[in-house]
Amino acid sequence: MVINLSKENSLINNWIAELRDVNIQSDRMRFRRNLERIGEIAAYEISKQLPFASQEVLTPMGTANAKLLMEQPVLTTILRAGLALHNGLLNYFDKADNAFVSAYRKHFKDGSFEIALEYLSCPEIENRVLIISDPMLATGASLVKTIHYLKEEGKPKAIHIVTAIACTVGIDYLEREVPEATIWCGDIDDELTAKGYIVPGLGDAGDLAYGAKIQS
Question: Where does 2-52+65-210 sit in CATH, by number?
Fold first, then answer.
């Protein structure tokens, strides 16, 4: 299932527009905050699909019946670009467990690249709800490899993927490789360059959020 959060008019359309706008992107704090906001909206929408249970809550004046989240998800992000989006999810799922994966494109001189995974830190994920955040879903290779890597630690009962901008190419690949996943997108673009960058996209989310990197 794919949910495009920009399909209906809401403030998320403003935040996506600011993420894309070259005249605004130089404001790193604003860029990070807009990613964080998208994570917050996604968390709220995902929460509607999670199980709740009735529970009595004692107030100063008596007892109230409340519906509370039955279990906490595991929030997972791909370093470093996913951190701001992850923070937005964590603002709402504030009691969640967290996992972090280091995955990046290792480029070669001929222009090709492979996905390198170098680090994983995660709690128990067996039979739990897994929410994975990555601001850009381009080819889908990083996310698919990350999910397969995580599944070696345990089999989640549900997988949600949260991304600011997704490309139809990456969505198609994810749907083939991880058909059980639900994909939540801030917006969807159709074009992907030969080097695997989304058009019109927004550029390099990690660099825009945290500064340019030197990678050998």
Answer: 3.40.50.2020
Check residue 215 and give its pLDDT: 63
| Residues 6 or more apart in contact with residue 52 via CB below 8 angstroms | 67, 68, 69, 70
Instruction: Classify the C-alpha dihedral 150-152-154-157 as positive or negative.
Output: positive
Indicate the helix (H) or strand (E) that contains 37: helix 28-47
**pLDDT higher for 105 or 208?**
208
Q: How far apart are CA 154 and CA 126, in angstroms?
A: 4
CA 38 remoteness from chain centre: 9
- Greater confidence, 81 or 92? 92
Which pTM was predicted?
A: 0.91
Burial 135-151 (b: 16+ CB within 10 A, else e): bbbbbbbbbbbbbeebe
